[in-house]
Write a structure and sequence with these properties.
Elements lengths: L9 H14 L1 H12 L29 H25 L10 H22 L11 H18 L5 H25 L8
Helix pairs in contact: 1-6, 2-3, 2-4, 3-4, 4-5, 5-6
Length: about 190
């Protein structure tokens, strides 16, 4: 694949945006399946085991469960393997995309999510409450940063990073509304 460069036609630009979505697919899968896992009847134990800090607030809250972390990582890894196989092995789209990249992207996603929950509890935002901007895209940034040591030689990495960071909050808002209507999310935002 040619490196991203201007000038380019609209078709090439949108193809590169699509490649960005595919490149960061493990983070999207991890984040989505962590939410969908609430329908699985086991492992719904909060990550903080119900413990509170000295300020009287929970460490993370009830919305951060071992089930969400485990299933998010499993589906992030599966998605990473699919992207590696289809995009790299079959089509040669990415020059550097190891099969295990989904694990590191998923780990970064969950650490950002836990950190955000920790901060929200410290400033008095209840579990499930909104923390504008942080909730909508921090998971993408840390997911990509955790994968960086393994993907730094990807030819269009900077374009994938920037595009994914811009698109993640937009997709978050667009997809949360139907997820809320379907009962998959507690809030629409």
């Amino acid at each position: 694949m040619e490196p991203f460069a201007f000038p380019m036609d609209a078709g090439t630009f949108f193809l590169m945006v699509f490649y960005s979505l595919v490149f960061s697919a493990p983070v999207y899968a991890c984040n989505s399946f962590a939410n969908l896992s609430k329908f699985i009847p086991f492992l719904g134990i909060p990550v903080d085991f119900g413990k509170s800090m000295k300020d009287g607030n929970r460490i993370f809250g009830d919305h951060k469960t071992w089930r969400g972390i485990i299933f998010g990582i499993i589906f992030g890894v599966i998605t990473g393997i699919i992207v590696w196989y289809v995009a790299l092995k079959q089509h040669g789209i990415f020059t550097a995309y190891p099969w295990f990249i989904g694990f590191f992207m998923s780990l970064g996603d969950h650490l950002a999510d836990l950190f955000g929950s920790f901060i929200k509890r410290r400033v008095g935002i209840k579990s499930g409450g909104s923390f504008p901007l942080y909730d909508q895209g921090s998971w993408m940034i840390t997911g990509l940063v955790f994968a960086f040591p393994f993907i730094w030689s990807e030819i269009n990495l900077w374009f994938y990073f920037v595009t994914s960071i811009i698109i993640a909050p937009l997709l978050h808002f667009i997809l949360n509304i139907p997820a809320y209507w379907l009962g998959l999310k507690d809030v629409w935002y």
